Amino acid sequence: MRSAVEIGYELLQQGRYADALPFLQRAVAEQPREGRVHLYLALAYAHQGDNTHAEKHFAQAIALNPHDGYVFYNWGAYLHRQNRLADALKAYETAYRLDPTLVGAKQAADALRTAAPVYTPTPSSPQTPYAPTPTTAPPPVRPTNRYTPTAISRHNDWGCVTNCLIGLAFVAIVWLIASVFAVLVFRALGLL
Question: pLDDT tens, 85-119?
Fold first, then answer.
């Protein structure tokens, strides 16, 4: 059975923002400490024109994931569409500083710094949140291979412990084999 965040994320990608809202709201209720879920809900609210709720969930996403460049890039794109250009510039710069692979954040920041044409917000359109239109700010980046709602990453110290134990076991086995080989060689030479 698919989770609420999976269904909501899929609907968000399809541009079905009104349909995505109840699933993403339920996902936030189920996973209130997951920043990306708040981000997806913020994007759905933003595309529905509900800026109050959108900003609330953008703030939650940033508070929960203060080192996630993807969250800051989307926050910057939202601010850019709102014509809040100074704040958008700060968000884009933060996004690129946190994740240099977000080249779109750097390009958007550079465009704002060089007084590129001011983008005007447009009413919601039936496009996916990632499809560019000529009259809007740079679109949110697609999280390809960076985040899958089904596999919400959690820090796991056991992975490190397991890898360390495997490494120690390998060293011990190599040492044991080398010791046995040395004993056999010394016996063959009559030194033992």
Answer: 999 999 999 999 999 999 999 999 999 998 555 55
Q: What's the CA gap between 82 and 98, in Å, rounded?
A: 23
If asked whether residues 45 and 9 sit together in one domain, one would say yes
Q: Alpha helix (H) ranges present in the chain?
A: 4-13, 17-30, 35-48, 51-64, 69-81, 85-98, 103-113, 157-188
Same structural domain, 121 and 176: no
Q: What is the DSSP letter of 150?
A: G
User: Which DSSP category does 136 fall into?
Assistant: S
Rounded CA-CA distance 114/61 in Å is 29
Q: Who's near 187: CB < 8 A, 6+ residues apart?
A: none
Find the domain containing 98 and state its range.
4-151
What gap in Å lies between CA 168 and CA 184, rounded to an integer?
24
How far is residue 66's CA from residue 75's CA, in Å, rounded to a whole number?
Answer: 12
Whether the pTM exceeds 0.70: the reply is no
